[in-house]
Amino acid sequence: MAKDVEVNGFNPGLIVLLVISGLVLTFLIGNYVLYVYAQKTLPPKKKKPISKKKMKKERLKQGVSAPGE
């Protein structure tokens, strides 16, 4: 019997590696596409209004006296 028999076909480890890397690549590209789409279509987030108390503190830090004092 000949010991030098060539094995036709792909290495199973290579197939698993290609499938997993393909899935990861698809996932990353899909996330990027969704991110770009969301940036274009969704409205910007609304900022929370600053409370009067917080505004007063900020003015005192900057050295500007708050009105009514």
Automatic annotation (TrEMBL):
It holds the Pfam family S1FA. GO terms for cellular component: nucleus. Its main location: nucleus. The chain crosses the membrane at residues 14-38. One of its GO terms (molecular function) is DNA binding. It is found in: Nucleus. The keyword Transmembrane helix applies. It comes from the Eukaryota. One of its GO terms (biological process) is regulation of DNA-templated transcription. Residues 45-69 are annotated as: Disordered. This is DNA-binding protein S1FA.
